[in-house]
Design a protein that fits this description.
single chain
Length: 95
């Protein structure tokens, strides 16, 4: 008999998505505090992203950033994308 409570392999849970969303916005706030970005609107404009998507993501915490955005954070700002996805390690990648 199949266990209906256990998610299928490869299926993300809502609680996982909420944690990823939370860590994503923690990174954005830290980058703002460090003066690396001005605000979320400016970050979106600079990287040709649609701000309404991120405004909605803030209001709907089960939404997560795309791999494209994680790559921007990693390549341009030195953010550890693994930390956003797993919470393990430091939020800034080691150089």
């Amino acid at each position: 008999m199949e266990n209906k409570d256990k998610p299928s392999e490869g299926v993300r849970s809502k609680s996982y998505d909420i944690e990823v969303n939370k860590r994503f916005f923690i990174v954005i706030e830290r980058l703002i505090q460090l003066g690396k970005i001005k605000n979320m609107f400016n970050f979106c404009a600079v990287h040709d992203l649609l701000y309404p998507n991120y405004h909605r993501m803030k209001k709907e915490p089960n939404r997560t950033p795309s791999f494209y955005v994680l790559n921007i954070l990693s390549e341009k700002y030195g953010v550890n994308a693994d930390w956003i996805l797993t919470g393990k390690g430091e939020w800034l990648a080691k150089k």
